[in-house]
Design a protein that fits this description.
Elements (H helix, E strand, L loop, with lengths): L1 E3 L12 E6 L4 H18 L6 H5 L9 E8 L2 E9 L7 E6 L8 H13 L5 E4 L4 H9 L3 E12 L15 E4 L6 H11 L11 H8 L9 E6 L2 E11 L5 E9 L8 H15 L4 E7 L3 H9 L3 E10 L1
Parallel strand pairs: 5-6, 11-12
Antiparallel strand pairs: 1-2, 2-3, 3-4, 4-5, 6-13, 7-12, 7-13, 8-9, 9-10, 10-11
Length: 311
């Protein structure tokens, strides 16, 4: 374990303020990080860490990840997750306990990560496009490079009717223990140019399949001549009331032109509605104009923005 103590962002040194970097969390630290994340989510109205980062808040070692634990005495006041597994640039997700903000702690976490990966650039996510994150990014010379839109739809409004499936296509649901490798290969083909989704590994898939929300009956596959050519993985968030998600829709480039994306999307939406859900959400690249147009035609509206900074 490395330990780092410094003046925090130009402020006077806070007593017993430390940043510890480790490649593995203890069970106690996992619980403490989740507590800080929950407090920040309640205060800000949006989760500070994206799903992949939260899945990596675990006592299991993740090869590409370093956990940054900022403590004030024995109390955890901030957390950063530095993931160097992306080929484009190392990525930092971080959060500061709302009760411990306005002391430069977020800036100190970013400074630690930046120094650790230098001379490479660093990528930061701001979930919900928080003004404080935008101000911090500007002060530190980060550039706003990417936007991910959150879109929502009320499932109580009438859905478009189901579309007919081409005769060459069979729709079925995911079979755990049988479909993992075929799905990973299809996902890699469908998202070859995507900076995150196309790099999904078997370990990433296994982590998701272990989550309480995983339901193979909501994971729809399109098959042609025994080969997977498309999918729509839906998700139900444990909220009050529960909220559905168009988790990810993918189509093999070799199967483009059959309308599978629209067919699979509607199958998933009807499935979520039939489960009694009132709301469905999805995330889409803001620059993906064809996709956002399709979702608008399906009744979705822009409801929020996540921002990536680079610097």
């Amino acid at each position: 374990m490395n330990q780092y103590v410094e003046s925090v962002a130009g402020h006077a040194k806070l007593p017993e303020e430390t940043i510890e970097a480790d490649d593995r969390l203890s069970e106690a630290d996992v619980a403490a990080v989740r507590e800080v994340v929950a407090a920040a989510t309640a205060a800000d109205g949006v989760a500070p860490l994206h799903e992949q980062a939260m899945l990596q808040v675990t006592a299991e070692r993740v090869a590409t990840v370093r956990h940054l634990l900022m403590r004030h005495g024995e109390r955890l006041v901030g957390y950063g997750q530095l993931d160097e597994g992306d080929a484009s640039a190392p990525r930092l997700d971080c959060v500061v306990d709302p009760a411990a903000r306005r002391h430069g702690r977020g800036r100190a976490l970013v400074a630690w990560a930046r120094a650790a990966v230098a001379p490479r650039a660093l990528e930061l996510w701001s979930h919900g496009d928080q003004p404080a994150a935008a101000a911090l990014a500007e002060r530190l010379g980060f550039e706003r490079v990417r936007e991910l839109w959150l879109m929502r739809r009320d499932l109580r409004d009438e859905l478009p009717p189901m579309r007919s499936v081409p005769e060459s296509i069979r729709i079925r649901t995911f079979r755990p223990g049988e479909d993992e490798e075929a799905w990973l290969a299809l996902n890699a083909r469908a998202f070859a140019e995507h900076p995150e989704q196309g790099r999904t590994t078997r370990a990433d898939l296994d982590r998701r399949m272990k989550q309480p929300w995983f339901d193979p009956e909501g994971f729809f596959l399109a098959e042609r001549d025994g080969q997977l050519v498309g999918f729509h993985w839906t998700k139900v968030h444990d909220a009050d009331p529960p909220v559905g998600e168009v988790y990810v829709v993918g189509v093999d480039p070799e199967a483009q032109g059959l309308g599978l994306g629209g067919i699979l999307t509607l199958i998933g939406l009807h499935h979520l509605r039939d489960r009694g859900l009132h709301t469905v959400l999805l995330y889409v690249e803001a620059t993906n104009t064809p996709a956002t147009a399709v979702y608008r035609r399906l009744g979705f509206a822009h409801a929020g923005t996540d921002v990536m900074y680079h610097g």
